[in-house]
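Sequence in, structure out. Go.
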Amino acid sequence: MNTLTEKIARERLQQFFHEKPLVIFGTGISCAVDIRFGMNALQNELQCKVPPKLNGNGLKKEWQCVIGKLNQNVDLENAMNIVMDPKLIEIITSITGEFISSIDEEYATMIMGGSIEWPAAKLFRKLVENLPATDPTLHVITPNYDLLAEYAFEKEEISYINGFIGGICRYLDWTQCEKIVKVPGEKINRKRITKTKKHIRLHKVHGSINMFWLDDRVRENNAWIMRPPKGRERIIITPGISKYERITDFRKALLQKADEAIEKESSFLFIGYGFNDKHLEKDITLKLINQKCKGVIITKDANERIQNLVSQADNLWLVCKYMDEKSEGTCISNKQYSNVLYLRDKKTWDVATFTTEILGG
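Output:
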């Protein structure tokens, strides 16, 4: 097997971006802005806010089972697997939505005003600018509930659509939404031909703090983010097995177009994504392993799931953080090379630094 050097790693990573990838980003990118977007903070919030809302022995018993799992150092994702009661799911969803919304509100003005920058903003600008005219759509999938990416896209003047169309209370219609990115093109035989401008197609597969269920349809309403009307269910799919059951209700709305995009693409970029969503990853992992599709994972912390996938997929790169007794740096690995490359004192695992060092700023 060949030995991986910094020069080879840089060249191979740069080559990856010659093709248009499908991008998946997770909570890691939001945690880079504020750690409260992570699971630990959500766990603390739920442990504090759920008990006062439990008014039945059944609910209390089920929640105590969750607490028991957490006390055994089971992560929130798996501890919540036992939550089945619809009322408890409703309580958890409401608290989660309020918590994420309150943090999101703190950063909306800062990102839009430019006092802070969403870490992946420059990377997405480069990805969109480099889209070929013949294929001007960058598919982006996220399980995140927050709106940090949307604020950044608007700040950077990156065109994007998310399937919703309308006024204050928008409805989901991808066909109509696609017309937003149509612009006049050249004249051919005296007829003006429309073309599609370069843009992001954003798929929020676990819902969002501004999504609600209204008139048996998924709706988007920014005015309701902080104070939803009584009885309006916020559509966010919370951790645990209940997420897969709730997806049955909203799958067509939230996942159908994302599934279609995954089916068509053959190159995948993961940013701050922990590989916790089997329903989303199933087809992608099969493509990476069986079809040897290309992929790059950029993340601060690699877990066992990520390491296992990298060990099986021939063309998957991992760029993550490492620490030794003397310094903090980056490690880069790929199955085709006999060694893991360690870059001491380099934060290439940080997506903003990665963009500058690998893609040139």
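Check: The chain has two domains: 6-21+265-359, 35-258. The chain has a mean pLDDT of 92.
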